[in-house]
Amino acid sequence: MARKPSARYVCQSCGSSTPKWAGKCEACGEWNTLTEETAEPTARKTGNLRSARLTTVRLDGEAKPPPRINTSIAEFNRVLGGGLVPASVVLVGGDPGIGKSTLMLQATCALAQSGHNVLYVSGEEAVDQIRIRAQRLGLDRDKKTLDSLDLAASINVGEIVGSLEHERKHTVVVIDSIQTMWLENIESAPGSVAQVRACAFELIRLAKTLGFALILIGHVTKEGALAGPRVLEHMVDAVMYFEGDRGHQFRILRAAKNRFGATDEIGVFAMTDTGLREVPNPSALFLAERRGNIAGSAIFAGLEGTRPVLLEIQALLSPKAGDGAPRRAVVGWDTARLNMLLAVLDARCGLKLAGMDVHLNIAGGMRVNEPAADMAVAAALISAATGTPTSPTAAYFGEVGLSGEVRQVSQTDLRLKETVKLGFDSAILPRRVAAGSTRSKPPAGISLHEIGHLTDLVE
Ligand code: TYD
Ligand code: MG
């Protein structure tokens, strides 16, 4: 008797499936992300595979580092761990409009210019649109680039796989984006978990057999209408996220997973009207955004999930307008936390701000939830109150308690590494607890100022 394929519900955010629908995904906690998908038939016979044999090797054999394909974009190479690895798969995720296609088109052209046969497949834009972008970026003038770069607009994975298998000449293939790709034999729509997984699986399998480096572009979605890059994270060798605020110039490429390199490397770019420009010295960009040496600003060495990020915290104080309570306007931070810090600064450090309106802003449109930002916020407030700018090359982090004591926060080493990476030369951080301290040697090029109480910061 033929079994009817059973329905199952798949979370479009994390990819886990359940037999019953629910409003909230049990696995990742996201709401309204479960959609119905027909289960793929799994009845595959394994009996006749028993005669197959594994090839095993000794652990002490020769081990060569993987060869690298230089992308000619130093910041991209850095995040990759030294360049693209042949037969590997990189997933580049990010919000729509952040610049993924721009970055990949620039990388593709640079690779073609150095003689690699590259295929760029867009499922989102027509060939004309890509040409217009390339013209705007000035990428369409070099003969070698034009000869080595193949452009196609397609969403049909069958077609893509067929051509790649037939031509067998490409060393790098870019798919923009995996969520637009479609395989004929899968029933669900493009962008569903089943399609995204099956398309990625076909392309990855081919990359491994033919040996080309595969770059998959994936949109990060909050609505859950499209399967997010998270459903692919375990299938690929490296995952990088392209981040930034569309209202701002800077963009950061960050590795979230990398089988061939470190995951705490970042690549910094600036979006200009002629495309993405590499920023080898990112502190220059941050300082340029800081508009010089003005009071009321401090740099916070923070963490986003497991990833370090440096942010500028801005504070503005003005005499209270009118009779009512003073204004506490906060963008990107917690108002209750700000009120607590103001109370601590008042009671423990004698900084009288009760009669002032306080505006606090995390520049760049980011939102900070970490208590570790307390010290940077305090530094920005003290700086605004005293009219003295903080050192432009110093970063702050540490949690502040109600008695004004500065407390330890997690991942000091990671924060310091990022601070150095971004070109800062000093850090103001919590005093080390003598016993049980696990902090390793600080990275070279940074001086540490350990603070035990907020009054030290005021001085
Ligand atoms: P895009 O690469 O299309 O984003 P994604 O592929 O991540 O969706 O980038 C789109 C944005 O970048 C668009 O809003 C315009 C801007 N942009 C520039 O500022 N300068 C440029 O040279 C280009 C090509 C795009
Ligand atoms: Mg795009």
UniProtKB/TrEMBL annotation:
Motif RadA KNRFG motif mapped to chain: 257-261
Positions of the RecA family profile domain: 65-220
Entry-linked PROSITE patterns: RECA_2
Gene3D superfamilies: 3.30.230.10, P-loop containing nucleotide triphosphate hydrolases (3.40.50.300)
Annotated region (Lon-protease-like), positions in chain: 357-459
GO biological process, one term: recombinational repair
Residues the record lists as binding ATP: 94-101
Domain of life assignment: Bacteria
CDD domains with a match to the protein in the record: RadA_SMS_N (cd01121)
InterPro entries: AAA+_ATPase, DNA_repair_RadA, Lon_proteolytic, P-loop_NTPase, RecA_ATP-bd, Ribosomal_Su5_D2-typ_SF, Ribsml_uS5_D2-typ_fold_subgr, Rubredoxin_2
Molecular function in Gene Ontology: ATP binding; ATP-dependent DNA damage sensor activity; ATP-dependent peptidase activity; damaged DNA binding; serine-type endopeptidase activity; zinc ion binding
GO CC field: cytosol
PANTHER family cross-referenced by the UniProt entry: DNA REPAIR PROTEIN RADA, DNA REPAIR PROTEIN RADA-LIKE PROTEIN
Cited function: Plays a role in repairing double-strand DNA breaks, probably involving stabilizing or processing branched DNA or blocked replication forks. DNA-dependent ATPase involved in processing of recombination intermediates, plays a role in repairing DNA breaks. Stimulates the branch migration of RecA-mediated strand transfer reactions, allowing the 3' invading strand to extend heteroduplex DNA faster. Binds ssDNA in the presence of ADP but not other nucleotides, has ATPase activity that is stimulated by ssDNA and various branched DNA structures, but inhibited by SSB. Does not have RecA's homology-searching function.
Family under the similarity heading: Belongs to the RecA family. RadA subfamily.
Protein name as annotated: DNA repair protein RadA
Species of provenance: Neokomagataea tanensis
Gene: radA
